[in-house]
Design goal:
The protein is about 30% helix and about 20% strand. The protein is built from 19 helices and 28 strands.
Length: about 775
């Protein structure tokens, strides 16, 4: 390992511009003569639009245009789409309701945009919007997903009877029934996996410009996958032909999945830029973000786990109702199905699993992938079941896990996942050692002397990352392939530009990708530049989500580097007057085996472009190669997190005292960045467990629609994290990478809730475990604790 190569804790190259205010985010961009868009949004969860009077607003100073959903529809533009087809268990396709960029005829959730004001300044647009008079016919709203399919419940979309999008399943129900009937013990639990608002640091933004001279559009936008945005906007919505649309995602301030999707605002800005012949800009304020950014989670689940007389698992049964909100989002259908149920085996050898998922429409903000996307929900089900089973069986929770761990790889689960490599005993043992699990009983007694309740909770999670191969996801309904692309451009001076279809929005790609190249080519890391996020520069790419940038994106770079090295060896053979087979490349030098003849990488790069000393009829001048990489399997990061906390029985306040995380991410490029990813993921997972909740009232109003009511985790909520690693190399990509970006958010909620329920002595509490919720639960156990 070199000081800047694979495995080195290199400080992030990109951080200097971020911490000195030199970042270039979408809202930092301005175009000459630009105007501003302000969207008029529904104050009602469900209502017909009887009349929209824009006459007074149109006369306001600075107003250029006001358009409604009817105007958008008149231009024959298509609706937003969901790009993953899921069929019900009877074979019928999912019921995808139209989702126009501007609602026409009816609005379906608070915040649903039905008109837009274009004006010279944002203040003028907002002032004019207040003069728009809308006559609504308010309709009954459907809010609770558990009630959405009930008899007599209002129907939101004509295409979806009973508000049901699909009734999907995986597994053999008859075989599962038989397995569960043979169980000596069955643990049964009901869960609500609470709805979350992503709250990326940077709100979403769009700046669209139309050039009438060449009929080209340019869109600057806060996107995790600009190429997919271009594809959907051109091919399905029809704003512009793909070759006439350039999408640029510059610096993006966090995404957590919420910036994967195609949103109405960027579509409308593009459309409007041509109509007004001026650049159009929109940036969300935080209140808009709460009611427009795709939310996460929101499952209602009943689950059962059966054991034999030896405490070996014999079967699992799960029924989930997944709330997808008022419209289907870009990948929403896959989250509660293929990204959820396929991970229900956890780290365990479970011979029978049956899972049924009903996804439903409600009059709430659409729900889609949020950090972890299905895997946190699956881990919560599995790990809460395991912990409660241990309590009901009166066995140690770690021992029950060990008794049921998968130990032989590859391991084919009964829910389609093929685990390729892992050592779950190692991560559990290391976590228990670091955490000093043996000392818990003494620490519990110490807490009791101070009047506190102490609990410990385990979460041994597994996730599927890399989201590939394309043939597999295609067979499961994905509308795109999930490979990745890369291009390596070696300049005549020996510096290197890497063009990648992955996108960075906080992951540190400009550092880790450069480390890979520095390590492989033996050049200084500062001689490597990473280019991403521009569809005019990068041919095509699938973006960043599902912890795929390392396993898939960097593997594409490796393939392109292989081609660069192969061509460079051909050139070196001519320069060094040797056989190509005798050329070796190591530490930035090409040399002839067994001799002292050599040439440095930079010198060879120059000769590749000069073209004087090799036959250009046989070897093309230059040194530039591209590659597409499609993995052979998902990757399967796994690990063990242990949470230890205290509860104040008088107030219900929870204080996390110790946290240990031991993860197996395969090969690690930069341990410092990986540890930062783990820290951030834990923070988001703890936020879900203790603080965060998107709460709607019965009328569909988001009552936790600001940071006054939606609590976010802060530094004071956490102890110092103890982070460790184990390593099994992933065999499905050339680097052996598994991925790390979502692990903390996947493991943390179950660890926290297992610790809380261990402390207070009842399972009857849902997330978020706020002080009020914990205090109420404590009242149920007060007599038992007093005894």
């Amino acid at each position: 390992m070199t000081a800047t190569g694979i495995g080195a804790a290199v400080r992030r190259k990109e951080d200097h511009r971020f911490i000195t205010g030199k970042g270039h985010y979408t809202d930092d961009h301005a175009r000459p003569d630009q105007v501003f868009a302000h969207f008029i949004r529904s104050p009602h969860a469900h209502a017909r639009l009887k009349n929209i009077d824009t006459s007074a607003a149109s006369a306001m100073p600075g107003v250029i245009a006001i358009w409604t959903g009817a105007d958008f529809a008149n231009d024959k533009l298509g609706p937003l789409i969901c790009g993953w087809m899921v069929n019900s268990k009877d074979g019928s396709p999912m019921k995808m309701a139209p989702h126009p960029a501007l609602a026409a005829g009816k609005v379906s959730h608070v915040g649903d945009a039905y008109a837009v004001v274009i004006a010279g300044t944002l203040a003028q647009a907002k002032d004019a919007a207040e003069k728009v008079v809308t006559d609504f016919e308010v309709l009954p709203a459907v809010i609770d997903p558990a009630q959405a399919q009930g008899k007599g419940v209002p129907q939101i979309h004509e295409v979806a009877p009973g508000n049901t999008i699909y009734n999907w399943h995986i597994g053999d129900p008859a075989a599962n029934d038989a397995a569960m009937k043979k169980a000596r013990h069955v643990t049964r639990l009901d869960f609500i996996n609470n709805r979350l608002v992503p709250n990326a640091l940077e709100p979403r933004s769009a700046l669209a410009e139309y050039d009438s001279g060449n009929e080209n559009f340019t869109l600057w936008t806060t996107s995790q996958n600009p190429h997919v945005a271009r594809l959907v906007i051109s091919a399905f919505i029809g704003v512009a032909p793909e070759h006439k649309l350039r999408v640029i995602a510059p610096d993006v301030g966090g995404g957590f999945g919420s910036k994967i999707f195609i949103y109405p605002e960027e579509v409308v800005c593009l459309w409007a830029s041509k109509k007004v012949a001026r650049p159009v800009k929109w940036t969300a304020d935080r209140s808009e973000a709460f009611v427009t950014d795709a939310h996460g989670r929101d499952h209602v689940t009943h689950a059962e786990l059966g054991f034999d007389e030896n405490n070996k698992i014999v079967g699992m049964r799960v029924k989930t109702i997944a709330n997808l909100g008022a419209y289907m989002s870009t990948f929403s259908s896959a989250v509660p199905t293929y990204l959820y149920a396929t991970l229900l085996s956890g780290q365990y050898d479970i011979p029978s699993i049956y899972c049924e998922v009903d996804s439903v429409y409600t009059n709430t903000v659409p729900v889609d992938a949020y950090r972890g996307a299905g895997r946190p929900e699956a881990t919560f089900v599995v790990e809460r079941l395991m912990e409660v089973s241990a309590r009901e069986l009166s066995v140690d929770p770690a021992e029950l896990r060990k008794k049921n761990f998968v130990r032989t790889f590859p391991y084919q689960t009964v829910v389609a996942s093929l685990y390729d490599a892992g050592d779950y005993d190692a991560s559990l043992a290391k976590a228990m050692e670091i955490h000093d699990a043996k000392g818990f009983k003494q620490r519990k007694r110490d807490s009791a002397r101070r009047g506190k309740l102490r609990g410990i909770g385990y979460s041994t999670y597994i996730e599927a990352c890399g989201v590939a191969p394309s043939a597999v996801v295609g067979s499961l309904g994905a509308g795109v392939g999930l490979w990745e692309s890369a291009e390596v451009r070696v300049n005549p001076t020996g510096s290197v530009e890497i063009l990648t279809g992955s996108h960075a929005h906080g992951q540190g790609h400009e550092t880790t990708f450069a480390q890979l190249v520095s390590d492989r080519l033996g050049i200084p890391i500062d001689n490597v530049t990473i280019v991403h996020g521009d569809t005019d520069k990068v041919q095509f790419g699938m973006g960043t989500y599902g912890s795929r940038s390392g396993a898939v994106g960097m593997s594409a770079i490796v393939k392109a580097l292989d081609k660069v090295e192969a061509k460079a060896k051909k050139i070196a053979a001519h320069l060094l007057e040797a056989a190509e087979g005798d050329i070796e490349f190591r530490d930035g030098k090409f040399s002839v085996a067994g001799t002292d003849k050599s040439i440095g990488f930079g010198d060879l790069a120059l000769q590749a472009y000069v073209g004087h000393k090799f036959p250009t009829a046989e070897i093309e001048p230059g040194l530039k190669e591209s590659a597409f990489y499609d993995p052979t399997n998902f990757t399967f990061p796994a690990g063990c997190h242990i949470c230890e906390l205290e509860v104040d029985p008088d107030t219900g306040a929870v204080t996390i005292d110790k946290w240990t995380a031991v993860d197996d991410f395969g090969t690690i490029i930069n341990p410092m960045i990986v540890e930062g990813q783990v820290h951030g993921g834990i923070a988001q997972g703890v936020g879900q467990a203790l603080l965060e909740h998107a709460v709607y009232d019965s009328d569909g109003q988001l009552v936790s629609g600001s940071f006054m009511d939606y609590a976010m985790p802060r530094a004071e909520n956490f102890p110092t994290f103890e982070v460790g690693m184990t390593k099994t190399v992933c065999p499905s990509n050339p680097l052996g990478i598994k991925g790390c970006g979502e692990a903390g958010a996947i493991a943390a909620p179950a660890a926290v809730m297992n610790a809380i329920t261990n402390a207070i002595g009842t399972e009857q509490i849902d997330m978020p475990a706020t002080p009020a919720a914990v205090w109420r639960a404590l009242q149920q156990t007060a007599p038992a604790r007093a005894a």
